[in-house]
Amino acid sequence: MELITDTAEEIVRRSGSNLAFALAVLPASKRRDMGIFYAFCRVVDDLADDPDHSINDRKEGLDRWRKLIRGEIAQPLRGVETEFVELCNRRALPVDDLEAIVTGVEMDLDPREFQTHEDLKCYCYHVASAVGLVSIEIFGYEDPATRDYAEQLGYALQWTNILRDVGEDSREGRVFLPKDAMEQFSLTTESVLSGNPDKEAFSRLMEDQTNVARRFYESATRALPEQDQKSMRSAELMRRIYSAILDRMEADGYNVFEKRYHLSKTRMIMEFLRAKIIG
Known about the structure:
Layout: H1 8-15, H2 18-22, H3 28-49, H4 55-70, H5 80-91, H6 95-106, H7 117-139, H8 145-164, H9 166-171, H10 179-184, H11 189-193, H12 199-223, H13 233-251, H14 265-277
Helix pairs in contact: 1-3, 3-4, 3-5, 3-6, 3-7, 4-6, 6-7, 7-8, 8-12, 8-13, 12-13, 13-14
């Protein structure tokens, strides 16, 4: 498959994600390094989801990134590969957490059901909490408790993503909701995939899972030490954006099969200015 030679800046510019938006509150050097790290996350995620290549090709592409993480490729390609390797060396980024991210996106190669809350939490650790644990190495922190903050916030953000994207995922033949929670409310995978589950039962399920996400947000808030609050301003901006999206879904009755929830441009600008000025 074709190897990536785009620069991190080009990849971030195309992404249009809330994470890329949140990077703008950082000082220039950290913004540059987080942009490179985000580009790595974007590239491996796109590799795993690329329908134009076989599963084996995608696995080979992800294995190349594992080798880059381990320092096993002597001459990385120009562009994001070289930038990423230089970042890993410059910031001494944790190899285990970087490999966990690759393992997480690899889980998406074969659509799976998550039987329990713990099964889904394990997936969220790999695709989101590990991202947070690497990010704080770039943000900088003093108290080791900030690692717990990053892990808990990762669960919260990914759980919110899953709830917001139920409709979109169902149209792609995927359901990320825990199967035992669906069964608790007399719902099946098939009914969610149909895009027309029993409305009352589905609302009760979504409320239950909203409460799970909120507990993760609360755990993250409790875990963040005061001395590291300023350095975590980008992560806190993400927390406020995604928890507000969760509130909006709840207030609107979880119409996730009809719409994809987001915040208004005005609200996003307000949150950005709050993060930039106050922290």
